[in-house]
Structure formats: structure tokens, C-alpha cells
Design goal:
The protein is mainly α and 327 residues long. 84% of the residues lie in helices and 4% in strands.
Length: 327
Amino acid sequence: ATPESLGAGLGKAVEEGANKVVDVAQQYQQIYNTSTARDLVTEDSKNLSDIEMQYKSNKGLNAATAYPIFQQQTQDLMDKRSASIKNPIVLEMYKNDIAHEIDGAMFRAGDWAAQQTMVGQEKSFAAAQVTQSSLMGMNGADPVSRAQAISKIRDLSYEQSHVLGETPDVADFNAQKSTVSGYDALVSGLIKSDPDKANAIAQEAFTGSWTVNRPDANGKMVQSKIPYLNDQGRQYLNGKMNQEFSQQEMMERQTAESNAMSTGQFNAAAYNNAMIRNHKSQDYRESQINMLNMRAQSFAGEATRANTELDIKNDTALAMAGLQTKT
């Protein structure tokens, strides 16, 4: 081999060795970059998880309000870390990986916000309906106030169903549920002080309805009547009324019997009205009042006899006193 060929071979070997050193260094640098980026992403994934858990402590409508804050916190997390990374390759790796983690967290947080917004809206509508039912109980003795409360309850129920995507049947049920609560509160407040008015208002609840526009089988909009109360509501209110009116009838009967047997008089009209409210037939009412009349007449006859006997005794005593005086 000539010196030239030996020199060329040596130079090639040196070049190949140098290339291998560069390759190893590049591989090492790549491993370092990847490991460093992975460690940073792992650490910030934990930080991101803490931010997400903190965000999910927001319930109801607060979740929607806090969502922009959560977005800003995730952006601040990435920006702060990015500013501390001087290696552009590590920075690019970090941003790519953490962006994927943030996207997942944003999706989960957005789903949470949607769920909680729906829950919050349901609670908000429910609270508004409870308020209207309570107002109906306090002010509903006035027909105008009562009609306004029922209209508001109905509108709130249909608005809720529109916002939450509920079916018309669900809207009807919610409206009827709140309406029976309003009538229940109203009737409960009147049934002792003014039972006849309470009964009249209850009958209004049993027979009343509102009108809504609904599509028929052909898709044509037609008016449909929705009763104030569904079957469950009617059974509840009717049962409560019957229980109270049964107690009132029993109390009126006891009062009438006591008065008939102690004074010979009783309030037949009050007892009759109590039996009417308790759905007693006319024949039954007449039989009960006739029986009390007989007891009152019996008391009156006994009282008359007793008074007559007393008068005779008094006259006899006076006569005897007169004879003794003459003697």
C-alpha cells in the first residue's frame, strides 16, 4: 500500500468513527430530549388532574361560570412550563404531548359543565315552581291570583321542558305536580276556617284545565286540553279532602247530639252542610237529622214534665205554708 492509500484509509476510518460518535451523541440527545419531555408532561399531567378535580367541585350552574377559569388555568399551566424550557426540541415534544392531555381534560370538563348546567337549570326551575305553589297557597283564595299562579306554574314547566329537551308529556306532568301542590297548600289553609270555600276550590282543581297547542297524528297543530291534575294528583287531593271532611262531620255530629240532649236544640244546617261536604246522600242526611230532632223533642218533653212537677211541688209548698200561717 502506498502512503497515499494508507492516508486515505486512515482518513475514512477517522470520518466513520466521527460519524458514529455523532450518531451516538444524537441518539443520546434524542433519548434525553424524549425522557425530559416525558417527565415534564407526566408532572404537568398530575397538575392538570388537580386543576380538573378542583373544577369539578363546582356544582350546578356554577360549573358553567367556572369553565372559562378552568380553560385559563390549563393555558397558564402550559405557558408557564413552556417558558422554562430552553431546548426547542424538548419544548416542541412537551407542547405536542401536553396539548393532547389538555384536550382530554377540556372535553371532560365541558361534559361536566353541560351536565351540571342541566342539573342547575332543573333545580332553578323546580325552585321557581315551588315558589309559585307557595304563593298560590298564600294568595290563591282570590280567583285572579289563583289563575295567575297556575298560569305561571304552567309556563315555567313548559319553559323547563324546552330548555332541557323534555317531551310534552314530561312538561304536563311537571306542571300538574306543581299545580296540585299549590291547590294542596291553598285548600289546607282554608279547610278548617272556610270548608265550603275549600271544597269549591277543590272541585275547581278536579275539573279545571288549560289549553296548549300540540301536533296531531298528521302534524297539524291543534289545541289540547290538559287537566290541572293528573290521576295521581286527583286521588291525593280527594283523599285529603275526604279525610278532613269526615273528621268535620264527626265533630258536627258530636256537637249536635250534645246540644240536642242538653238543650233540646241543635244546629241542623251546620250538621247537614258537613254531611254534604262528606258526600253523604240526602236520605242519610234526613235520617240523621230526624233522629237528632227526636232526641231534642224527647229532651224538651222531659224538661217540660220536670218543670211541671217542679211547679206542682212549689204550689204545694206554698199552700202548706199558707195553712200553717192560718193555724
